[in-house]
Amino acid sequence: MKISTIANHKNRIVGIIIWLILWQAAYIIVNKDIYIPSPVSVAASIGSLITTVDFYKVVFYTTVRVLISFIISAVVGVSTGYLCGISKKSYEIFEPLVVFVRSTPIISIIIIAIIWFNSSYVPIFTGILMCFPIIWSNMVEGIRNTDKKLLEMCKLYNVGKYEIFRRVYLKSSLPYLAAGFSTALGIGWKVVAAAEALSLPKYGVGTNLFNSKIYLKVPELLAWTVIIIFLSYIFEIFMKNIFKRIEVR
Amino acid sequence: MIKINRLKKNYENKKIFNNFTMNIEPCEITCILGPSGVGKTTLFNVISGLTDYEEGEITGIDKKNISYLFQEPRLMPWLTVYENIDIILKNIFGEKKRKEVINSYLDLVDLKEYSDNKPDELSGGMKQRLAIARTFAYPSTLLLMDEPFQGLDIKIKNNLINAFLKLWERDSRTVLFITHDIDEALKVADQIYIIQDNPVEISHVEHIIDRKMNRDIYGEQYMKIRKRLTKVLTE
Question: Is residue B37 exposed (0-12), middle (13-18) or buried (19+ Cβ within 10 Å)?
């Protein structure tokens, strides 16, 4: 088991090295930092960014926006998803709204949000509208796939509604929720950064991406991109660990 | 006494029960024998309130006081052995009493040392034993048992029947027991009803008065009963 884990890591490391070599080769061939900066200059850019105080403020504000939009989506998505999973009537009321939100181009949502809200809230609003439908759909699916025989057994033994929610519905929906939360969180980072790049709040990774583009600081632009990917990855691992612990319980 | 009077129940335009009447003696084990698909499980679902019926009357039952041992154990895989019983008793007893009740029933079915295990860690027979313990732990006056021992090998089946009889002798509740295994019925029943046909009718009733734990079901008296039952079922 241990040997295979090491082998897996080895493969991953080799993969990363290969892609870095190809990136360096592309940089040498194109030979223009403005189109493709070298991995070394991007790494140097990350190094210089993380030594500034503003970097931490930027990361902090973006992370807070992602988390607020994710938590609101999770609370609303799980509660309304549960309701819609057990009641066809509720599902038919909610479904058109969810389909509408899901089909609306993200750029329309961001522009409308810019008209409605202060620039700091635009990424949160956009994040909610993008994450909520994913969590809602997965919750509905999880509730609908709950073992009917277990529910019948609970009904027969007069198990309380809260216990049925907590011990049967929620537990059955856990794999669906884990997938939904993971996808929603990943999308949350992308959407919040995109909304920041258009609404330009004072501190935000998206704002810095936009500024890098304006001043043609391509290594910095890629450095912020790498930082977003890294943050998204860390949060996904964190989320997976939480679900693992819940499942064990 | 539980009385089912002129019950009418259709399923997909098919009359399952049409003016079906049956009396169930309290504190006894009544076995219902019959071919597959005749409507035995439907009868249980009607009695327990899991299914509606068109007409008729069922008296002598408090719907909140029924335990149901299903064909499959219906255990929650994410709960421990202890928690699987605990969840159905939460609305009934306080924590201390629950602990006492659950431990005593787990002890009777020899599962106390597995309290913290999950159902996936138990064998098929152990899971069914847990389901039996859950059925008895619920303070019901009527127990419905729907082919609880089918598909198990003979040794496990005998152990489970003994565990069941041990639990039943403790508090003599009214039990309705569905089976299509004559031997099983001979081992546990006070009365055996054979139901057949469409719509369902009672075609034979048998009374057995021996104490259950001492029955020699291959003795002369039981061979005669077995013959009678086999004759009715194969006619």
Answer: exposed
B13 phi and psi, to 5 degrees?
A: 65, 10
Query: Taking chain B, what is the end-to-end CA distance rounded to the nearest angstrom?
Result: 31
Q: How many residues does chain A have?
A: 249
Say whether A150 and B76 touch across the interface (CB within 8 A): yes
Task: From chain B, pick out residues whose CB is under 8 angstroms from the CB of A150.
Answer: 74, 76
Domain count along chain A: 2
Indicate whether A93 pLDDT > 70: yes
Say what the pLDDT of residue A6 is. Answer: 64
Residue window 159-218, chain B: list those with CB within 8 Å of chain A: none
Q: Determine, for residues B90 and A159 on separate chains, whether the beta-carbon distance falls below 8 Å.
A: yes
Q: How far is A149 from chain B (nearest CA, A)?
A: 7
Is there a contact between A67 and A60 (Cβ–Cβ < 8 Å)?
A: no
User: A157 vs B67: CB contact, 8 Å cut-off?
Assistant: yes
Percent of chain B scoring above 90 in pLDDT: 44
Do A71 and A25 fall within a single domain? Answer: no
Task: Say how many CB pairs under 8 Å bridge A and B.
Answer: 40
pLDDT, one tens digit per residue, over B97-116 is 999 999 988 988 889 999 99
Q: Which amino acid would we find at residue B110?
A: D
Same-domain pairing of B124 and B148: no
Mutate to test the interface with A, among B41, B46, B66, B76 (most CBs of A within 10 A): B76
Write down the pTM of the prediction: 0.80
| Same domain? A97 vs A2 | no
